[in-house]
Predict the 3D structure of the following.
Amino acid sequence: GAGVSQSPSNKVTEKGKDVELRCDPISGHTALYWYRQSLGQGLEFLIYFQGNSAPDKSGLPSDRFSAERTGGSVSTLTIQRTQQEDSAVYLCASSLGPEWADTQYFGPGTRLTVL
Amino acid sequence: AQSVSQHNHHVILSEAASLELGCNYSYGGTVNLFWYVQYPGQHLQLLLKYFSGDPLVKGIKGFEAEFIKSKFSFNLRKPSVQWSDTAEYFCAVNAVGTGRRALTFGSGTRLQVQP
């Protein structure tokens, strides 16, 4: 079946602009995660959704970052007033449910470049 | 908070050589352990995972990993690497019973296999 999809695949923006990144999880997966992968920082957790609720937002680096999930499916990560340090690959993952044993499946990522 | 260390940042091997990539984590409780692989230009894929039971786990493409609880380690091994194994390898952990469902990743090991 279809995997996790993300759009756009690449986004170049100017410092100070807002951006929206989209994630479509695997159909039927109730858990959704956002991570980012940047040079020198590895993979960092941002936010976790179970259904439409976000019980863990502890990884969001500042209040410029927000995310929502609607219909228990699509999620959007919004970065307001982008800064150069926001440049990274933003990864979305989904899993069947919230169980510890559930495997997370990753999408291809959105490469964000802030000029 | 849990952390994951991958001590080998860049490994260069010749084809048919044996591989062992180190992974250590810091959490005293029950853990789930994962190895993910990212081939050039592709997204993260699950290589293998450990939840419980036999500490020697076999994954795809001839990879295996051994969970040694007393050493807090989950090293990845392959007896004979191929050029197609060139990729970046990430070890990840989640700490069962904590409030955190997200994975904590190591910084990754870049494997280069020379023909």
About this structure: Residues 4 and 25 of chain B are 4 Å apart (CA to CA). Chain B has a mean pLDDT of 93. Residues 4-114 of chain B form a domain with the Immunoglobulin-like fold (CATH 2.60.40.10). The interface with chain A takes residues 32, 34, 36, 42-46, 49, 51, 90, 92, 94, 96-97, 99-108 of chain B (CB under 8 Å).
